[in-house]
Amino acid sequence: MKLSDKPLSAKEIAAGIKNKTFSATEIVRNSLSRIDKLDGDIHAFLAVTGDQALLRAKEIDEMVSKGEDPGILAGVPIGIKDNICTRKVATTCGSKILNEWKPPYDATVIEKLRSQGAIVVGKTNMDEFAMGSSTEHSAFGPTRNPHNINCVPGGSSGGSAASVASGMVPLALGSDTGGSIRQPAAFCGVVGLKPTYGLVSRYGLVAFASSLDQIGPFSRNVEDSVLLSNAIMGHDPLDSTSLDIETPPIKIDIDKGVKGLRIGIISEFLEGISPEISKAIELACKYLEEGGGQIESCSVPSVRQSLSAYYLIAPAEASSNLARFDGVRFGMRVDGKNAEEMMVNTRTAGFGNEVKRRIMLGTYALSAGYYDAYYGSAQKLRTLVIRDFKSAYQKFDVLLSPTTPTTAFEIGAKVDDPLTMYLSDVCTIPTNLAGHPAISVPFGHDSKGLPIGLQVLAPALKDNLTLRVAKYLESAVEKANV
Q1: How far does the chain reach from its first CA to its final CA, in angstroms?
Q2: Which of 109, 194, 293, 448 is the Cys-Cys partner for 288 at CB 3.0 to 4.6 Å?
Q3: What is the DSSP string of 18-59?
Q4: How are strands ordered across the β-sheet holding 171-175?
């Protein structure tokens, strides 16, 4: 059967393979063909595992022919951010210091995906060690936005977002430390979910900031995000931060709409945003009210200082986590006259400027005499953020905000101005500090044709509620053809 030129959803692929409308082999070949055709311009992938993917597709087809159920993601191609360990497949974290390093094990999420029939077709590009907001800080060159290749796709999971937006794969995994799933999802016009901290295992995720990092899905629609979430969520004894609770599947009550929901619009996030994104928020409020939602303005005062707190906490944790890359145990090694010189030479040659900047900032914040003034104070502010969100959720079921202050900017526009670049994550960082779920859903385009993303936030373990509101907004936009 000839596959449609229009990319199929993950749900359509899994159903079509199970009912033998087409085979997993056809689907994977089609995905690899699109990668071959499009990725020369976009550079979403750092490695394509075509041979392995076709072998796995053959196994899926054999299971189907025997009447066996391969899983909820039967035969669905998926891209994996290159900081998630894949056994015997290079996992570089976008850094020269790990170039060609092949882990001896799979991350828990990879094992879960394979158990549900998903097929990994490659590793996606990213800002080095997930430190960036544009995927320009990759040691292997930038990824470009499929909507305009002169623009960034966002970061740090820009490769994953671009691979889904361009139709190379229907699903991808990213990681979100301060917005690295939601921000590129908004820039590329796809759905990006940051789950509740601890709902998805971090075992096998190369750590940036351990108290903030979270793996999550990219998809082209909310229903596919539900499918992928159900595949990867659940307790993992190998991850000490994994929530030891029974995690029920995210049910398809996402079609219930928003009638009766109390929805707060975070007033602090409406300051300094582009006029076109402001209009999108107004239109979203109109649709939500038409659907029976109760809309009010909401203040979360401490989010104003979240950016400052984040850029002390995250670099401090990064300076500790990245100490393991010393030229001794794995990865790149540059020799020196002694062990100390070898370590200095290795880290100098192996790390890029943004990573070095954050390591130095984090090390300083943790140093003797400065710990309480910087890292300690940032953690106190984090507690205030958690309290302010708790107060807001006593009045509201969910909160709504822009995902980003602007749409995608041109490549090179902010790469030499770190502070301006950091402001790209001003709307997403507070959720990471709180550990709550949040989702970015596409909501129209600006006058240049670049996607606009809106963010739905909810209390911890209310991931399904973010998906429900996102699904309503997605449907509203489709009907209005915005």
Answers
A1: 34
A2: 293
A3: HTTSS-HHHHHHHHHHHHHHHHHHH--EEEE-HHHHHHHHHH
A4: 45-48, 119-124, 77-81, 171-175, 215-219, 191-194, 438-445, 451-457, 398-402, 262-266, 294-298
Q: What is the pLDDT of residues 174-231, one digit of tens each?
A: 999 999 999 999 999 999 999 999 999 999 999 999 999 999 999 999 999 999 999 9
pLDDT of 1 over the 50 cut? no
Q: Which amino acid is at 479?
A: K
Q: Residues with catalytic annotation? A: 81, 156, 180
pLDDT at 429 over 80: yes
Angle between helices 10-18 and 50-65 (to 10 degrees): 50
Rg (CA), the chain: 21
Residue 13 token pair: 């692929």
* Alpha-carbon gap, residue 129 to 135, rounded angstroms: 11
Phi, psi of 68 (to 5 degrees): -90, 155
What SS3 class is residue 274? coil
Which two tokens mark 28? 């994977």
DSSP-derived secondary structure letter, 301: G
Final residue before a domain boundary, out of 201, 217, 232: 232
Residue 341: how many other CB atoms lie within 10 Å: 12
Q: Do 456 and 431 touch, CB atoms closer than 8 A?
A: no
Q: Rounded to the nearest 10 degrees, what angle do helices 108-115 and 222-232 cross at?
A: 110
Give me the phi and psi of 64, to 5 degrees please: -65, -40
Instruction: Classify residue 368 as exposed, middle or buried by CB count within 10 Å of its CB (0-12, 13-18, 19+).
Output: exposed
- Counting the structural domains of the chain, the total is 2
Q: Name 19's Cβ contacts closer than 8 Å, sequence gap at least 6.
A: none
Beta strands of 414-469 (E only): which ranges? 438-445, 451-457
- From 337, 353, 372, the end of a domain falls on 372
DSSP summary character for residue 284: H
Q: Are strands 77-81 and 171-175 parallel, antiparallel or unpaired?
A: parallel
What gap in Å lies between CA 186 and CA 405, rounded to an integer?
10
- pLDDT, residue 285, reads 98
Examine residue 158 and state whether it is found in any structural domain, yes or no. yes
In tens, the pLDDT along 243-302 reads: 998 876 677 688 999 999 999 999 999 999 999 999 999 999 999 999 999 999 999 999
The boundaries of the domain holding residue 120 are: 10-232
Residue 441, number of CB atoms within 10 A of its CB:
30
